[in-house]
Amino acid sequence: MSTTYLIKNASILGGAPADLLLRDGNIAEVGSVVSAGDPVVIDATGLIALPGLVDLHTHLREPGREDAETVDTGTRAAALGGFTAVHAMANTDPVADTAGVVEQVWRLGREAGFCDVFPVGAVTVGLAGERLAELGAMADSAARVRVFSDDGKCVSDANLMRRALEYVKAFDGVIAQHAQEPRLTEGAQMNEGELSGILGLAGWPAVAEEAIIARDILLAAHTESRLHVCHVSTAGSVELIRWAKSKGWPVTAEVTPHHLILTEDLVQSYDPIYKVNPPLRTAADVTALRAGLADGTIDAVATDHAPHPHEDKDCEWAAAAMGMLGLETALSIVQHTMVDTGLMTWADVADRMSSAPARIGQVDDKHGRLIEPGEPANLVLVDPKAKRIVDRTALASLSQNTPYQGMELPGAVVATFLRGTATVLDGKLA
Amino acid sequence: MRRHLLSTADLSQDDAVLILDTAEEIARLAARPIKKLPTLRGRTVVNLFFEDSTRTRTSFEVAAKRLSADVINFSAKGSSVSKGESLKDTALTLEAMGADAVVVRHSASGAAYRLANAGWTTSHVVNAGDGTHEHPTQALLDAFTMRRHLGGFDGRRVTIVGDVLHSRVARSNVQLLATLGARVTLVAPPTLLPVGVANWPCEVAYDLDAVIPDSDAIMMLRVQRERMNGGFFPTQREYSRRYGLDAQRLARLPDKAIVMHPGPMVRGMEISAEVADSDRSVIVEQVANGVSVRMAVLYLLLSGNESAIGHVAPQEYPHENTESKGAAA
Q1: Residues with Cβ < 8 Å from B255, sequence gap 6 or more?
Q2: What is the CATH number of domain B8-134+287-302?
Q3: Which of A66, A263, B85, B186 makes a 20 to 30 Å CA pair with A217?
Q4: Cα–Cα distance list, B201 to A407, B182, B183, B196, B198 (Å)
Q5: Longest CA span, chain A
Q6: Which domains does chain A have, with CATH numbers?
Q7: DSSP B76-144
Q8: Whole-prediction pTM
Q9: What is the CATH code for B136-285?
Q10: Given an 8 Å threshold on Cβ–Cβ distance, is A315 in contact with B88?
Q11: Tens digit of each residue's pLDDT (9 = 90 or more) over A266-319
């Protein structure tokens, strides 16, 4: 028998305040709840209730790099960030390219219990880009994989990409592409532009992302299969996706929080905390990404939470690993860049961070749903007026590679509920 | 201002002129029978070289020794670096040994900047070449050499030819020469020019022959062997024909124009042997000037107070400085 919660006066999706009764894993009542036995009462005055956030793009690092993150620590971070579901990327060691590995990750997620873990399966064996992994076996496994990605590497072979798109139609899967033309990005260290020329760092040109997206959009149209574009980072990519959607083609896209706020100027410090793939781009790209997210061209925010141990960042730029933490700061960054700027409402946030990613990941039977009676009680309560200073040592993640160290960010996750059970209360793990 | 020399972009015109003037004074002393100065007695200069570079390392070593500093050569080969020790741990080790200045050469762009700013060391850091970023003492010795021959910088036309994309020498020279008032033109095939070069403080041209008659100094950059197979240009022969400096092109230079090369040269590729050995060539002089310029840099960084460059005028015979190593700036 789980605890019954009565949440008083929560602003649902930023709208009028209402009470929420959570009982037996579901939302039992919404509105003015009068009597409900003996619930735990949470005063949510001034707080916003959103459906639990869903991340399409999380690196949990287990198995293989348990020094950087584990399913347990990563899902703690997720819960603290307001997430009730994360999609765990396949670039583990061993790679999640078999039913065995995805089931292991799925089971670790169930044991941890802080949020649902949906493993992403590799598209190709060992992420090598040579032959298809057993996509069907992963789809049929207990992990019920629907999202397939070689993230970290691009499925650059056009024919292999075509076959992958075709093959996953059998079980309504989606190919999430890490769009990076490998030959155009050999040794790439940062966005290619005037700054890379001055800093003497090998450039990662926008065209290397856009060329693959353009190709894959056409392949998705041709195969009539679903393409999802990971971590869109350039203005040109937004234009291409906007064009694909105008054609009615089955293309979705995500943007990371860091690409909504950080720009390449930070690389002038040569501090690898800012080294990430795709790289931080220009202010014009940031503006286009925000506009694309606001108008729905970009469907979802996905963290690309990429933990790395200290020694992989406390070194010279070229030697450093690519990637930054995201789970515990994502909602604050979205509030800061999209809500506080007036570009989006909280209802839009619920769509881009919960409903849309749940739909793309095919977990929308349980996640990303309306806040209505009878729905699963996957919820997050956010205090939009709170301010906090990011302290990397206080994060639940095993790694500390946040680019926001010392920054004051708006908004705080006060509580997270997974099927009616609090994973976070008063901003702390419950 | 600065306690490190990381990039020529950090130097004001006054800073740069001070370094050149100081080097000029030091060069005069070098003409004496006893070349050594007591200036840096008791100070330790570490040459931390992660890349092979006999000429730059030797130049810094001679410079430091002529200033009476203790010199430690710490090269990637035969040290713990080759066993996988990180730049950070190497820095911490040198810090613990009491290095006053670290002269660093590294294959990663920004390595010197990182060494100076990551909190790993309180030593003064001199960038002796970081990846494809900068090589400031090379640019300073080039400027020193140019000033001697051209009499100044104002309006002087300097042409830099070759693999600008991968050249730290070109980056440092463009910044420094612009600061000093010279007019720089980069000449290269478009494949060997960085994106955004149009916004650098210089001109860009693809046609060497058009620029040659308007050059007071022409600097030929080495084309590294790995670039030759990288698809940046079709063949060595075509590169040589279009961008190499041979006797015919030399003849079309203005009368007093000088020919420079940071070395090591690939004779027959970017420069013909005839040109390299001609009386227009100041290539050997560049090497000699390198010692004076590096002495000036070490002297200005290490003697007197820690913000020596830009603040403290050089003294004729500075005495040993007893001030202990300063805290991090």
Answers
A1: none
A2: 3.40.50.1370
A3: A263
A4: 35, 10, 9, 11, 8
A5: 68
A6: 5-48+375-429 (2.30.40.10), 52-360 (3.20.20.140)
A7: STTSGGGGT--HHHHHHHHHHTT-SEEEEEESSTTHHHHHHHSSS--SEEEEEEETTTB-HHHHHHHHH
A8: 0.92
A9: 3.40.50.1370
A10: yes
A11: 999 999 999 999 999 999 999 999 999 999 999 999 999 999 999 999 999 999
pLDDT for res B75: 79
B129, closest residue in chain A (CA to CA) = A200
Cβ-nearest to A317 among B110, B196, B200: B110
pLDDT at B86: 81
Out of A193, A200, A205, the one facing B109 most closely (by C-beta) is A200
Is B242 a residue of the active site?
no
Give the range among A122-126, A368-372, B31-35, B53-57 with minimum mean pLDDT. B31-35
Report domain extents, chain B: 8-134+287-302, 136-285
Inspect the interface and report whether the beta carbons of A200 and B131 lie closer than 8 Å.
Answer: yes
Could you identify the residue written with the tokens 């970009």?
Answer: A298
- Three-state SS for B57? helix
Rg of chain B over CA atoms, in angstroms? 20
How far CA A180 is from CA of A229, A233, A272, B134, in Å, comes to: 11, 11, 20, 29
Please give the Cα distance from A98 to B95 (Å, whole number). Answer: 49
Put simply, the answer to whether A316 touches B195 (Cβ < 8 Å) is no
- Segments in A182-334 forming alpha helices (H): 194-199, 206-223, 235-246, 257-261, 283-294, 330-334
> In chain B, how many H helices and how many E strands?
12, 9
Q: Are A101 and A94 in contact (CB under 8 A)?
A: yes
User: How far from A271 is each of B87, B119, B326, CA to CA, in Å?
Assistant: 14, 12, 24
Mean per-residue pLDDT of chain A: 97
How far is A318 from B107, CA to CA, in rounded Å? Answer: 9
Question: Which residue shows structure tokens 């000033």?
Answer: B147
Could you give the CA distance from residue B235 to residue B229 in angstroms, rounded to a whole number? 8
Q: Is A304 a catalytic residue?
A: yes
Token output for A142: 């207990």
Residue with tokens 């002393």: B29
Q: Answer yes or no: is pLDDT of A10 > 50.
A: yes
B105 torsion bin: left (phi>0), alpha (psi -120 to 50), beta (else)? beta
For tokens 């990429």, name the residue: A306
